[in-house]
Amino acid sequence: MRIHVQYFAILREQARRADELRETSASTPGALYAELQAAHGLSLPATLLRVAVNEEFCGWDTPLAEGDRVVFIPPVAGG
Is the pTM of this model over 0.90? Predict the structure, then answer.
């Protein structure tokens, strides 16, 4: 299935892109993130991230469907 993935902050730097349309067999955000870690060398563990599917925060085991928009959100620091 095709999933639209968006990257922010350090994930954007490591993936060398802001977003991508990805063909995947991953059925959950957790499986998708593992796939992306291997493909792009993403260094942050999933335990430090939040995930949203179709603009709603969700769990790592939420089922994915064709055309979903997935965002992985790293911790943010600032003042």
Answer: yes
